[in-house]
Amino acid sequence: MDAQVELFQALGDATRLRLVNLLTQTGEICVCELVDALELPQYNVSRHLQILLKAGWLEDRKVGKWVYYRVARDLKPYHRSLLRAVDQLREEREDFRRDEQRASRRLKLRRGGVCCVGLVSISEGGHTAQRPGTAG
Amino acid sequence: MDAQVELFQALGDATRLRLVNLLTQTGEICVCELVDALELPQYNVSRHLQILLKAGWLEDRKVGKWVYYRVARDLKPYHRSLLRAVDQLREEREDFRRDEQRASRRLKLRRGGVCCVGLVSISEGGHTAQRPGTAG
DNA sequence: CGTTTATATGCATAATAGCGCATGTGAGCT
DNA sequence: AGCTCACATGCGCTATTATGCATATAAACG
User: Fold this and answer.
1) What string of pLDDT tens digits covers the 136 residues of chain B?
2) Based on the structure, what is the number of domains in chain A?
3) CA of residue A64 to C1' of nucleotide C1, angstroms
4) Which residues contact A65 (CB under 8 A, 6 or more apart)?
5) A87 to chain B, minimum CA–CA distance in Å?
6) Residue B24 phi/psi, 5° resolution?
7) Would you call A4 an interface residue with chain B, using a CB distance cutoff of 8 Å?
8) Nearest-CA neighbor of B37 among B90, B97, B88, B99?
9) Does residue B60 fall inside a structural domain?
10) CATH code, domain carrying A30
11) How far is the CA of A53 from the C1' of C1 (A)?
12) In this structure, is residue B131 part of a structural domain?
């Protein structure tokens, strides 16, 4: 599809807006951390990450069994403007702020700068607690 | 739906991006002029205008049988950032430029600052030539 | 090699979006 | 009143999208 239209379309979804916001606020962050922060099922987060990736919004970096995502670095002016818009949304979006809080708590638990290391149990059931049926 | 998500979603469509671009570039402009500029069927343009209107992007003003649209005036910072992004897209979008050219030709034909007055035939078949079957 | 962990994806389904056609609405003109 | 013009909208269709479930992939670890 039209690459620029795809760019806007990728932001036309609440979950993806939350992801983009979180990624711009926290920098590089891995999928399991995003799952915990957004409190959404892993497959759901993964799907939306793929959409953002394909649209050109994100970069991924694989480290062992983890995948870290971050906002892409080679951005054009219109990308920047769009990211600024997302940032300016923050004031009005409680969900953004809650995501950021949960993410910040989660990121403090990183050991040696690596996600998930030494994590046995965040909530009961471990940090994959957001699998449907386990949480909620 | 979530008002801010709707805002982004409204821009996630080529036709609506073209409309927003044209409206930011030309100011107030009526539906028949937009139809000529975009070379799309009237019902199509009308539909997308309603979507943009509902999303909070546009204002309309009815004058006789015409309806003029313009970009809304009470905009928040994130609206402005988004509009800036659309503007920055212009460089890469031939379609935007073509729309603007056709619009500019069309707008020169206004009489007394009013659209459509004294217009008998722009292209053969009159200025409603974009009805399917008449054009293309 | 089998198992666990982290992530991605095929599939079915439900919801949504865009399009074309036809028609409705409402203003102005005769 | 009847007609035309400018614009909006209901309907049916098709295409796309989001979601949930299950499973695939692939790395790490015993």
Assistant:
1) 799 999 999 999 999 999 999 999 999 999 999 999 999 999 999 999 999 999 999 999 999 999 999 999 999 999 999 999 999 999 999 999 999 999 999 998 887 778 877 665 433 333 333 344 333 2
2) 1
3) 20
4) none
5) 8
6) -70, -30
7) yes
8) B99
9) yes
10) 1.10.10.10
11) 35
12) no
